Amino acid sequence: MSECDIAIIGGGPIGIWGLYHAHLRQVNALLFDSLPELGGQLMAMYPEKDIFDVAGFPRVLARELVEQLVAQSVADPTRVRVGEKVLSLTQLDGLWQITTTLGQHLAKSVVVATGLGAFRPKMLGVTGEERFEGQGVDYFVKSLDALVGKRLVVVGGGDSAVDWVNTFSGRSEVTLVHRLERFQAHPASVQRLVESGVEVLMPWEVSALSGDDHLQTVTVRALDGSAERQLPCDQLLVCIGFNADLGPLKAWGLALSGGKVAVDREMRTNQPGVFAAGDVVTYPGKQNLIAIGFAEIAIAIKAATEHAFPGVKSGLAHSSSRGF
């Protein structure tokens, strides 16, 4: 059974950045993630998506952001346990026993940075969808090059759908289908979409899919029943959201609010020695932004360090003050 000062649960960008702050504070941390590689949602679903809300980067590919975070934060690869899912947390003699799919570990403090948990894409529920999944129907983009020059139909009106349309505008023949009368995406992204001249059908919906071994045609119709069209299509990209599941975390005894972990201003949960940061947490005024998650994990690691070493104030940690 291994031991550490702080166990970080979650290997997305927030959890990775937590390793950086643990190293700055010279504490022994272990990071756990159930996925086979670091990066969380960014690498699992959006590796080729541009990110615009990280300070210092006008735009950066998700996979490139993860690569830079890993290079900056993972000083010792043996402190990272990928492919190891945390199943339970149990108090044991003043420590936290962490039971995973591969064994047990002890930690003085725990920081939860699991994001919104496991994701399952929301499906359209139309004829042919399951048949063409992976054969012309997808819910996220793994490779930009594979879609360049294709006839692409994107479904949705949120940030993900609008961002992908903007990404492929001018590179592919793109049509956006949205069943509402307004977008939910960031206004600047919508403005860029409008100025691109991409065909937008709204309020329209996809009603059927057809083809031989691969998707060939997407049938769309106006919600008021006034019109119907057959769109030749090489790739249908469905961006209507995901169903998130916190999984085992729900049984860890953490106070939840609205399906998220409730924390205070120091990222403390209701369990002594357990802290949380990122999209998994909620508090008054919370915003789900990577930049905010970076700040939250820095606060959480500071508080977790002070819990692990009571009476020793860790103070402020800066890379310039540690020869980092």
Can you give a write-up of this model?
- By secondary structure, this protein is α/β, with parallel strands linked by helices.
- The protein has two domains: 2-119 and 243-321, 3-Layer(bba) Sandwich (FAD/NAD(P)-binding domain), CATH 3.50.50; 123-240, FAD/NAD(P)-binding domain, CATH 3.50.50.60.
- It has six helices and 22 strands.
- The protein has helices at 13-24, 40-45, 62-73, 159-168, 187-196, 290-308; strands at 2-9, 29-33, 50-51, 60-61, 80-82, 86-92, 95-100, 104-112, 118-121, 137-138, 151-155, 173-177, 199-201, 204-211, 215-222, 228-232, 235-238, 242-245, 256-257, 260-262, 274-276, 281-282.
- Strands 1, 2, 5, 6, 7, 8 and 21 form a seven-stranded mixed sheet that branches. A five-stranded parallel sheet has the order 10-17-11-12-13, covered by helices on one side. It has a three-stranded antiparallel sheet with strand order 14-15-16, with no helix packed on it.
- Helix 4 (159-168) links the parallel strand 11 and strand 12.
- Helix 1 packs across helix 6 (290-308) and helix 4 (159-168) runs parallel beside helix 5 (187-196).
- The radius of gyration is 22 Å and the shape is elongated.
- The two termini are 30 Å apart.
- The model has no long low-confidence stretch (mean pLDDT 92).
Radius of gyration: 22 Å
Q: What is the CATH homologous superfamily assignment of the largest domain?
A: FAD/NAD(P)-binding domain
CATH A-level architecture of the largest domain: 3-Layer(bba) Sandwich
Strand tally:
22
Low-confidence stretches: none
Q: What string, H for helix and E for strand, traces the elements in order?
A: EHEHEEHEEEEEEEHEHEEEEEEEEEEH
CATH fold category name of the largest domain? FAD/NAD(P)-binding domain
Summing up helix and strand content along with how strands pair, one would put the structural category as alpha/beta
Ends apart, CA distance between termini: 30 Å
The fraction of residues in strands falls at 25-35%
CATH class bucket of the largest domain: Alpha Beta
Mean pLDDT: 92
Report the sheet with the most strands, covering strand number, pairing sense and barrel closure.
7 strands, mixed
Structurally, how many domains make up the residues? 2
